[in-house]
TrEMBL record:
Lineage: Bacteria, Bacillati, Bacillota, Clostridia, Lachnospirales
Region (RNA binding): 252-258
Coiled coil start-end: none
Cofactor names: Zn(2+)
Keyword terms of this UniProt record: Glycosyltransferase, Metal-binding, Queuosine biosynthesis, Transferase, tRNA processing, Zinc
Alphabetized InterPro entries for the sequence: ArchSynthase1/Queuine_TRR, TGT, tRNA_ribo_trans-like
Protein name, per record: Queuine tRNA-ribosyltransferase
A Pfam family that the UniProt record links to this protein: TGT
Cofactor detail note: Binds 1 zinc ion per subunit.
Ligand binding (Zn(2+)): C309, C311, C314, H340
Amino acid sequence: MYELLKKDGEARRGRLHTVHGVIETPVFMNVGTVAAIKGAVSTDDLRQIGTQVELSNTYHLHVRPGDKIVRQLGGLHKFMSWDRPILTDSGGFQVFSLAGLRKIKEEGVYFQSHIDGHKIFMGPEESMQIQSNLGSTIAMAFDECPSSVAKKDYIEQSVARTTRWLARCKEEMERLNSLSDTINPHQLLFGINQGGIYEDIRIRHADEIRQMDLSGYAIGGLAVGESHEDMYRILDAVVPHLPQDKPIYLMGVGTPANILEAVDRGVDFFDCVYPSRNGRHGHVYTKQGKRNLFNAKYELDDRPIEEGCGCPACRSYSRAYIRHLLKAKEMLGMRLCVLHNLYFYNHLMEEIREAIEQGTYKEFKKRTLEGMLSQGK
């Protein structure tokens, strides 16, 4: 159940009650594709840095180690020793982005594994079965994610297929949740809005899928190459057509600036690989913008990554030391940067929630964006 606590303009402060605990929104979900955050980050670390939701990938866990193995081991929560909510994405985006040879048919998609080339079929029912085996808190519907440069007539056909697939996902999820041996019989299903950068297709699709009364609604197919202006234009158009009594999730987004702008347009859930990916390359987020710790100017800098930050890296280590670790290719350097970045994102969401509660979100957004553009020392 989603509880809307406060609105400040379009920005929403809410609470999603799940079988694995309450999610305070807006929320950033920390991406652990294969049931682990890249950068040697443990689930104990995730608790320490304020992670509310961990996100894992259906496709990747299906090909390795196998969802049936995870099920035999008690489900994903037990497997990775995490007792808070987990969202699993459906595998749709990976099927369309990673798979080389693929055939899209009404029943689903035939493709080859990116690991060993073996043939795989995945459709709505298979995606739901895999996610049920994983036992995640929130399962995502199986959709087609067309290219952002696809022609309009193709996107219209693709979106119509995604709608038909969503109906099949809902039916299969209800069946799986009713089985006596299901790991998580309270698994929630989020549907996905598609339509590229065409407002009319997006709005029509949102109006169709809101009739299905799902647990939440995602906006997919953005942050895949279109401009930020196009992304914000689509959000302005489509968010008002999604149910306001359900959480709204912008998939794969994004930078701190993207998040601040999307919250202002009524989005509740976010995920992105940026904090962990950038951290592994020595790029760290601060309120004064992004820093590259490989830069020579940090060689003798004994300050923490960000003064006043409470993350494990900033509490104990200097920029100079972390730079040394990165230059020496010591894994600890990468790990500390990832921990800092995830803490930064999780803490930013806390500040966003507080600003909405206080009715000062517009001022907070303006101040925070200006600070990040300052590129302080």
